[in-house]
Amino acid sequence: MTYKLYAARGCGSAIVEIVLQRLGVPHTLEWLQWGKFGEGNYQQANPLLQVPTLQVGNELMTESLAICQWLNSKHKGKLVPAADDPALSLYYRWSVYLVATIYPTFFYGDHPERWVSSEESRKELRKSTDEARKKMWLQMEKAAQGERYFLGDKESLIDAYIAVMLRWRPGREWFQTNTPRLNSVAEHMAEDPKLNSIFAQFES
Predict the structure, then answer these.
(1) Whether the Cβ atoms of residue 54 and residue 4 lie closer than 8 Å to each other
(2) In degrees rounded to 5, what are phi and psi of residue 167?
(3) Which distant-in-sequence residues (6+ apart) come within 8 Å of 5 by Cβ?
């Protein structure tokens, strides 16, 4: 079976890239240009014009957490706690929190022109979603069980999300000051030389 990941540099597709690397799954990348996802045929693959989208043979998968959990299950990974692991409930709670609570603040805040018409309203929406996100991250900081991995002593998909999302707004300096445990989790993953090419896309 062949895998092709539709990705954009510096975007959430990097989370799936990390998981593919961790699981040792061969794949190809098709790079899209940020802000121009609507050009070409990509809208047929993902009508929301978001990345990532994973092509599996002739099938398409969207939604990063669904993709990551499916890959982990398909390739017998250990990035989701086992059914008898006490950490499983924490994993479910905070993995869904990331994609259902924090992630949507970017969906609305990155493109406020999609939701409100006036320039003043757009600025207000961007500011309000940014401020709300800070409070969400502070809540997650309190829940962190360790400084190498969010769940404590075991790596999980949550760590890939943290490693990528802490490179977005409100910015590295804010996370270093306000969420030191989450920042430590992100830095620990970034230190892995096998992931250098993935994290390099955030520096350009």
Answers:
(1) yes
(2) -95, 0
(3) 13, 16, 17, 20, 27, 28, 29, 30, 52, 53, 54, 55
| Cis, bond preceding 170 (omega within 30 deg of 0) | yes
Per the CB < 8 A criterion, the answer to whether 146 and 94 are in contact is: no
C-alpha 145/C-alpha 49 separation (Å) is 35
User: 29 and 41 in contact (C-beta within 8 Å)?
Assistant: no
Closest CA to 65 of 94, 33, 37, 39: 94
Cα–Cα–Cα angle for 75, 81, 85, nearest 5°?
140
Residue type, position 98, single letter: L
Closest CA to 13 of 5, 1, 21: 5
The encoded tokens of residue 15 equal 């989370």
Instruction: Say if residues 19 and 74 touch (Cβ distance below 8 Å).
Output: no
Contacts 24+ apart (CB under 8 A), 191-195: 194/21, 195/18, 195/21
What phi and psi, each to the nearest 5 degrees, are found at residue 77? -80, 180
Q: Tell me how far apart the alpha carbons of residues 94 and 141 are, in angstroms, rounded to a whole number.
A: 11
What tens digit of pLDDT does each residue of 87-122 get? 999 999 999 999 999 999 999 999 899 899 999 999
Rounded CA-CA distance 133/137 in Å is 6
Does this model's pTM top 0.90? My answer is: yes
Distance of CA 77 to the CA centre of its chain: 18
